[in-house]
Amino acid sequence: MDLDLSPDQDLFVKTTRRFLQSASPLTHVRDLHERGVSFERDYWRKGAELGWTAMLVPRAMGGGSVSGDGLLDLALVAEEMGRLVAPGPLLPVNVVLDTLVRTGSAARWDHVVAPLMAGDAVATWAIDEGSGSWEAPGVHLQARKDGTDWVLNGTKSFVQEADDADWLLVTARTGTGLTQFLVPRSTEGVAASPRRSIDLVRRFGDVSFTQARLPASSVVGAVEGAADDVQRQLEVALVLQNAETMGAVDRVLAFTLEYADDRIAFGRPIASYQALKHRFADMKTWLEACHGTATASARAVATGADNAAELVSVATSYIADRAPLIVQDCVQVHGGIGVTWEHDLHLYLRRVTQNTMLLGSARQHRERLAVLLGM
Fold first, then answer.
1. Can you give the pTM of this predicted structure?
2. Which residues, other chains included, contact 374 with Cβ-Cβ below 8 Å and sequence gap of 6+?
3. Could you read off the pLDDT of 280-292 as tens digits, one per residue?
4. Is 172 helix (H, G, I), strand (E, B) or coil?
5. Would you list the DSSP string of 259-270?
6. Is residue 264 one of the residues assigned to a domain?
7. Domain tally for the chain?
8. Do residues 56 and 140 share a domain?
9. Inter-axis angle of helices 70-83 and 7-23, to 10 degrees?
């Protein structure tokens, strides 16, 4: 993120970077993939100790952030995780925590918030149903009232850490509106099946709900009043996803420039050739524009600006267009070594490519932007 960091934020970023370099270098990411593991709980607990799960939680509930601007501080963590394509459910856990502390009393959700903040439990956000929409029109999973209970039927797709999550924040259709439920993963009638993921360590799955019965206390927020909550969840998720993407692209361009300075062809570094200078200039221009839009949208969401939804889609559509192109260009600069399994480039390309499709494609966000602008 292109932020003017305070001394405290700068120290926080450096601490986070050192931890990730020590606990989750790229060799460890490859090892997790070989073992078929998404992330390790001990690693996640240590991240929680650094404050990764406290940023969006009020101090009264044990949370807090470095600068007092929790979402911007959390975006700095996401960016650092992108630099090392690090594992961990940073996005879904914080989306759920933000929702719980905004829509319920501390006493009601403390039994969930406390273990999530400590890293002892994991929660995930379940809204997509495979239609490509992460907003209200794409929700068809039904929740019907049965006495004092609610019964859920339907399927959610592309649920991050579906197998490892202890809790699922599920968006369902009830009557004419949307209602959200916090569902224990162990609930009878809830089953997960894995999906293929191009990312080496990020796992997704489909979660089916078959006559899954929940008590009334599982409702998050107001019945049929979750539309605004879903909008907020999408905005927070996109801010974090875009920040992570920018961290990955930043790192790729940096080590590609180093490679171009070291690689000798016809007696001189390839970085000295005019054609590659032009190419690097284009990539740097695109990268700075990506940073600018990502930062503007993050600030808008953090402050609750009226145009936050518009700026988030501006940033996401631009980043989804340009970030994969930058990484692909860097692959080309590396030549043959850039397309081998042994080189780290494909780890970044996988993460960036997945991010640019996960919460809506560039085209979908341009269409969303047109609707928001009344076009």
1. 0.96
2. none
3. 999 999 999 999 9
4. strand
5. HHHH-EETTEEG
6. yes
7. 3
8. no
9. 30
